[in-house]
Amino acid sequence: MSPTHGAIVGGVVTVPDIDAALRDYRDVLGLRVIADGPVGDALAASWGCPANAVSRMATLRPASGAHSFIRLVEQSVPEAFVPTTSFGWASYELTVQNVFGWPKRLEGSGFDIVGPPKEIAGLPWFVAMQVHGTGREMLYFNETRSNTPTSDLPFAISPIDHIFIVILAARDRNASVAWYRENLGLDEGDTHVIEYSMINKAFGLPAGTQSGLTMICKGRMPIVEIDDYPAQAGDRPRDPGHLPPGNALVSLAVKSLDACRCDWIVGPAVHDGSLYAGRRSATTLGPAGELLELIELA
User: For a designed S-S bond to 66, which of 5, 50, 162, 270 qualifies (C-beta 3.0 to 4.6 A apart)?
Assistant: First the structure.
């Protein structure tokens, strides 16, 4: 199926050893490698990360064939980087089959389970688990049970399928919601206040601490979950000229780059690769400092 306005086309993950990461993403998760080579000067410049031009990058796609890609970029992990404690992209949520079977499958891999599969009271539509990879990136594995009253959730066609929600750690949730709505023409969805165990655990907050989150969507398609982060959160540590560590960059499809109210790092251009399919793209910084690459459908 071709992407529509707002669809998640991919996510970039930084890893310290790309061969080790491929053993996890390719051999354990079953994603298929479709390209492997340097990032290149033009793409690195478009991301505002010139030091990554010579970095090795592997592009992977789910066995389902969905037009959704995970790109692994090799770079060192800053010692100060701790997942789920800084602003920016916090996690990518992938639709999967049989989530309760994944802990056994991950044994001996580079993935650490930080949240085992768990049914959540009041949220009967899915069951999720959370893992950290070797780059300290976070992935949610989410098995869909049914659509929610306000959104359509994808059912996985392959054991690990595509990214269907990206999670943003916001400086100011309301400001981020307004930015995605007003600058990209996306819709504001439901807001929930929950006991968010990943946030509470990362910051050592007492049990029962509540956090707010708002969904950004397009019609019934969920896209970005924007989370409130506590006052202890800070900027993500990163090496000069490099991508942010962990969950580094998200790519979304848009009808028209010219219609987006964004300040581009570098003006729109066409880059090589199946992800771009000959279409123009450009990258901007969102209000939480997140790198957001937009790929034109036209």
Answer: 162
Judged by DSSP in three states, 240 sits in coil
**Edge-to-edge order in the sheet of strand 8-15:** 32-38, 56-61, 69-74, 8-15, 247-254, 291-296, 280-285, 269-270
By the 10 Å C-beta count (0-12 exposed, 13-18 middle, 19+ buried), 107 is classed as exposed
The answer, as to whether pTM is greater than 0.90, is: yes
pLDDT in tens, 271-292: 999 999 999 999 999 999 999 9
Within 10 angstroms of residue 96's Cβ, the number of other Cβ atoms is: 26
The pair of three-digit structure tokens given for residue 127, joined into one six-digit string: 């069951």
Q: How far apart are CA 88 and CA 227, in angstroms?
A: 10
Which one, of 147, 91, 136, 140, lies nearest residue 118 by Cα? Answer: 140
pLDDT at 1 over 60: no
| Paired tokens of 121 | 């009271």
